[in-house]
Amino acid sequence: MFWFLTKDCPFIEIFGHLNAKSIYIPSFRNLSTTAAASVKNKEGLKLLVTAGPHARKSGLSMTDWKFIGGLPPLSGEDWLIEFEKYKQSPEYKRVNKGMSIDDFKFIYWMEYAHRMWGRALGIMLALPFSYFLCKVYITLQLGLRLSGLFALVAGQGLIGWWMIKSGLEEPASEYAEPSVSPYRLAAHLTYFSIFVMPEPPAESVAWVKGAAKVRRLSLPVTVLVGLTAVSGAFVAGNDAGHAFNTFLKMGDTWVPENIFSMRPLLRNFFENTSTVQLDHRILATASLVAIGGLWVSARKLELHPAVRSLIGSIVGKAVLRVTLGISTLLSYAPVSLGTAHQAGALTLLTLMLLLSHTVRQPSLSLLKTLPPVVKTVA
């Protein structure tokens, strides 16, 4: 589900969960010679494109979730207790066994900061809501909307823990690494909240008609951009960014041979790393082309300057997103570039949703007051 969000910070959301790993199944990774050779240099490149060995440590350090409270360890003894809890997790036993307490503190503070940021966002909504409610400034209709919004904010936290919980469970196979569910990661990453938008900018009937034509184009493009963002979440959740690190081709071929290696067939689109990456490439390319077509079509219409400027920003952000995506791919998906790429994708989705709201039809009362064309001052 997609909601237009001003509540969440995409950078924090992605940074907190981009490091999810996939279950490694050798029979599903029939990579080409080029792709296989590129993996040999992967470890050396990781040290160059991340913050060194500490940043290579990934993990779900906090093994429990408390709705209220949750102070960080305040003493050496507290840290040892928290570390012992982590040592009981499948991730420590299979992935990070032998890690030092300093490395544990590094991943712990990343996750703790993410949780506290989310709670702070909830408080920032709850405090003014409570104040205006006590002052009787909120009508029943507005109160219901704000209550729904607050429920969505709380739901974001619950979905986050639901996602993390999957990474703390024992994998189905003794050969598999523990990882968060890519389905739950996608749900957490694409969960947003709606704010009621003001009246769309409209100063003439001509601009309203132009906006109506843009609206017919922007809605399907918004859906396409949204699907691309969701497919990016599955790329991160399945660690599919490491499947093929070449562009334009995927290894030696345009289409990998093993894209239909799973049964049932539908699982290929969500769990097969080759297919997941191919789907994301196709959707990203289609989104860029569609946004380019929207921009070309809009140039011929009479539009409010704010709408025209917004479309220009969307084109720029789309180009930047693709550039970051290719750079992430060729650099073996470092966390830094991957974070920037996914933040850009969610920003682009936000801009498309904003455009869809901006070009919606004004209220009938406003339409009756508009002149046929824009009045210009000599």
UniProtKB/TrEMBL annotation:
<dbReference type="GO" id="GO:0006783">
    <property type="term" value="P:heme biosynthetic process"/>
</dbReference>
<dbReference type="InterPro" id="IPR023754">
    <property type="entry name" value="HemeA_Synthase_type2"/>
</dbReference>
<keyword id="KW-0408">Iron</keyword>
<protein>
    <recommendedName>
        <fullName>Cytochrome c oxidase assembly protein COX15</fullName>
    </recommendedName>
</protein>
<keyword id="KW-0812">Transmembrane</keyword>
<keyword id="KW-0479">Metal-binding</keyword>
<dbReference type="GO" id="GO:0120547">
    <property type="term" value="F:heme A synthase activity"/>
</dbReference>
<keyword id="KW-1133">Transmembrane helix</keyword>
<dbReference type="Pfam" id="PF02628">
    <property type="entry name" value="COX15-CtaA"/>
</dbReference>
<feature type="transmembrane region" description="Helical">
    <location>
        <begin position="120"/>
        <end position="138"/>
    </location>
</feature>
<dbReference type="InterPro" id="IPR003780">
    <property type="entry name" value="COX15/CtaA_fam"/>
</dbReference>
<keyword id="KW-0472">Membrane</keyword>
<dbReference type="GO" id="GO:0016020">
    <property type="term" value="C:membrane"/>
</dbReference>
<comment type="pathway">
    <text>Porphyrin-containing compound metabolism; heme A biosynthesis; heme A from heme O: step 1/1.</text>
</comment>
<dbReference type="GO" id="GO:0046872">
    <property type="term" value="F:metal ion binding"/>
</dbReference>
<feature type="transmembrane region" description="Helical">
    <location>
        <begin position="144"/>
        <end position="164"/>
    </location>
</feature>
<keyword id="KW-0560">Oxidoreductase</keyword>
<keyword id="KW-0350">Heme biosynthesis</keyword>
